[in-house]
Design goal:
Largest sheet: 7 strands, mixed
Number of helices: 11
InterPro entries: ADH-like_N, ER, GroES-like_sf, NAD(P)-bd_dom_sf, Zinc-ADH_QOR/CCCR
Pfam families: ADH_N (PF08240), ADH_zinc_N_2 (PF13602)
Number of strands: 15
Protein name: Chaperonin 10-like protein
CATH superfamily of the largest domain: Medium-chain alcohol dehydrogenases, catalytic domain
GO molecular function: oxidoreductase activity
Radius of gyration: 20 Å
Keywords: NADP
Length: 322
């Protein structure tokens, strides 16, 4: 089979398409013919050598959709599935390959009547379940909520906006660039705020009020995000695209306002297995749920796909087709 292999850390050019042995499934596993996979910011960091569990050579890839071709019979051959691979790496081969093996516990069957294309199905591997679970499991989103999404132009931020606009009363999203406002307007944000790192001051000066905050930036902004929510509100940290993973000199008694709840969300297999996949796929098919922009590349364009994400040119979800 063909696989996209990283032999050493470096720029996008270290990604090479090579011939690789097809991985045989073991007991409790299935073999998937990968039809499409989404790119993740974590894969950029891993390729650069900044990931703690990065090993080389490596077949990366946290997300996959495809067709089951072999296994122990738990999932029939020919079944279309979406797979979560993120917590299996690097012990398992990733999805940057024509075939990958995964435990049956890490796949969801796609409804036989679903007519979504592979590129649309690819967003249900990580982007949609992460956004949905952060909103409804961590933030417990309610129709009366006023939601602030910090990091609105990330793939997760755009997906969260698309999902939340039908489930809360008001959504504000942040961006650092004026040129990205149109992108956020296109997914339904009610208000767009330019984030200079001191967002809480701007919110107070404009008389805005939020009951829930989804922070996708990380340690650089979370202390300020905690000041953006009203009493009894919830702030959820669900991303670290800002780069820093620790908060220096963090004193919770000072940083977390009284009565405000501070939580985090990290994807898990249990949540992946329980988010409403069939319902959300149907909502996309019927037009009730609009997806963010999907930028499509083919496997022989993997270098450009990585470069596009690394340079923040994607403006949506990057999906690679085999």
């Amino acid at each position: 089979m063909e696989a996209i292999v990283v032999n050493e850390p470096g720029p996008p050019e270290v990604l090479h398409v090579e011939s690789y042995p097809r991985p045989p499934p073991k007991s409790g596993e299935i073999l998937i013919e990968v039809k499409a996979f989404g790119l993740s910011r974590s894969e950029i960091l891993a390729r650069q050598g900044h990931s703690a569990n990065a090993r080389f050579p490596q077949i990366m890839g946290r997300e996959a959709v495809g067709i089951v071709t072999a296994g122990d019979g738990t999932v029939a051959s020919g079944t279309r599935v979406v797979a979560m691979i993120s917590d299996l790496l690097p012990e398992y081969p990733g999805s940057y390959a024509q075939y990958t093996r995964v435990p049956v516990t890490h796949v969801r069957r796609i409804h036989p009547l679903c007519k979504l294309s592979w590129e649309h199905l690819a967003v249900f591997s990580e982007m949609i379940p992460t956004a949905w679970n952060a909103l409804f499991r961590a933030l417990r989103l309610h129709p009366d909520d006023r939601l602030l999404i910090r990091g609105g132009t990330t793939a997760i931020g755009l997906a969260a906006t698309c999902i939340a606009k039908r489930h809360c009363s008001f959504i504000a999203c942040t961006t650092r660039q004026e040129s990205r406002k149109q992108l956020l307007e296109g997914v339904g944000a009610n208000k767009i705020l330019i984030d200079d790192g001191y967002l809480s001051q701007k919110i107070k000066s404009e008389g805005l009020e939020f009951t829930k905050v989804l922070d996708l930036i990380g340690a650089k902004t979370i202390t300020d995000s905690l000041q953006c929510v009203r009493p009894y509100g919830i702030v959820c940290l669900a991303g670290t695209i800002g780069g820093d993973s620790t908060i220096p000199d963090f004193n919770p008694m000072d940083a977390v306002p009284s009565t405000v709840s501070f939580t985090t969300y990290k994807s898990s297999v249990e949540d992946f297995r329980n988010f409403p996949l069939d319902v959300l796929c149907h909502e996309v098919e019927t037009g009730h749920l609009k997806l963010p922009n999907i930028r499509i590349y083919f496997s022989n364009q993997i270098v450009e796909a990585h470069r596009s994400m690394e340079e923040n040119r994607a403006e949506g979800k990057v999906v690679v087709l085999w």
